[in-house]
Amino acid sequence: MNLSYWEIKSWLQNIDFTVIGSGIVGLNCAIHLKERFPAAKVLVLEKGILPQGASTKNAGFACFGSLSEMIADLNHHSEQELSNLVKNRIEGLQLLRQTLGDKAIDYKKHGGYELFLNGQKELFEKCQANTSKINRLLKPIFGADVFSWVDNNQGFEKVIPQLSFNPFEGQIDTGKMMEALLNLAYKKEIKILNNITVEDIEDSLNGVNIKTNHFEFKTSQVFVSTNGFAAKLMEVNVKPARAQVLITKPIDALKIKGTFHLDEGYYYFRSINNRILFGGGRNLDFKTEETTEFGLTEIVQNQLENYLKEIILPDTPFDIDHRWSGIMGVGSEKSPIVKQYSNNIYCGVRLGGMGVAIGSLVGKELANLLP
């Protein structure tokens, strides 16, 4: 790459900390590193023109798990583990709001609902039977019952008339959140280079050699926050999980308000600017959606449109305005991986589709791994 003396000197020499990935985790990590070590030179590398992965592509749910999702999680986690997961998600959301402010991220607490299709009577009854158990488990965190049952009064069709309701759930504007994080990073004089793909990181006794698609340089420590892409750089128990999303054009007199979940959290929709944003469906074809390639599939997009027509907006004409996908990081456990990987390399990955909730906390914990 045709770099000048000035460019090398200003951006690529005497780097104390290099963060790979400029998403929620990466930027929070960089910000907390700068707060801990004000004189340090902190560099963030991002492979996309904008933050890739899921940070700018998520649905903007400030959530911590639906009722059916938590009940399903108890098949693989103990009650204490589930309680810790929810506690960390709540702490992460509080940290996000404290760091940026509710106005900057357009935070609104309209509550969250879960719908059950007419053919999901067994799941519905299981959730009703376990509501008290989950509320008892979460009460030490919230100081009140989290889940209750309300009537379907928002016009949804082909669903069981009662919905699970959670008053503690909120929503944000994902774009505003990332803009605010970037602005905060710039104010702290953190350097960010976009369109840089890290191809290899090699630890040594006196630092880490980083090879990118454009240049090579040396840094004292590296913090990997690439989530679903982490396995390309290190051996970690993280698999990519693509999430597909669509959004309608504005709909006149749209009455739907809040965030909504379906099918153990595999489908989710919300209202924003008189539109419906709808995502999910990777459970239709887990293998195909286990990919780091952005893209759309006919089977998922058709299902999203069908649910819009038949369940969410049954008597309302709508047009699709835009479609996209993001890449999450998942694994056999839902808890994130925040650890020292080698002498000078650290990682904070596997957010399990809860990046908005736990990303800020994981970023802070990642920065605090450094002695």
TrEMBL record:
Q: Which InterPro entries match?
A: FAD-dep_OxRdtase (IPR006076), FAD/NAD-bd_sf (IPR036188)
Cross-referenced Gene3D superfamilies? D-Amino Acid Oxidase, subunit A, domain 2, FAD/NAD(P)-binding domain
What is one GO cellular-component annotation here?
A: cytoplasm
Q: Which positions fall inside the FAD dependent oxidoreductase domain?
A: 16-369
Q: What is this protein called?
A: FAD-binding oxidoreductase
Tell me the organism.
Paucihalobacter ruber
